[in-house]
Amino acid sequence: MYRLLIEKQVEKQLEKIPEPDYTRVRNCILGLAQNPRPAGCKKMRGRVGYRIRQGDYRIIYDINDRMLTVLILAAGNKKDVYD
Question: What is the value of pTM for the model shown?
């Protein structure tokens, strides 16, 4: 099982997501602890990490397999998260 690490800025981004989308995004993030490379995840090009989609929202994260950690770098609406 991987340990989840969430950047402070991501916590603020998550607070802006309305229900029921927030619950879906949160569950998706929690699922990364069990499987950091779920079906549908994509390695980012031109940027560090991976991305996973959850409806109109994207979660960008990096995996450290040696330390068994997943660092959540960004989470939010697809139009805002890639900035």
Answer: 0.91
Element (H, E) at 31: helix 21-31
Is 83 part of any domain?
A: no
Task: Confirm whether 82 is domain-assigned.
Answer: no
Residue ranges making up the domain that contains 19:
3-77
| 40 is a domain residue | yes
Q: State both tokens at 31.
A: 């699922």
The residues, ordered by sequence, that sit 6+ positions from 81 with a Cβ below 8 Å of its Cβ are 13, 57, 58, 60, 74, 75
CATH number at residue 44: 3.30.2310.20
Whether 82 has a pLDDT exceeding 80, the answer reads no
What does the pLDDT look like over 38-73, one tens digit per residue? 999 999 998 889 999 999 999 999 999 999 999 999
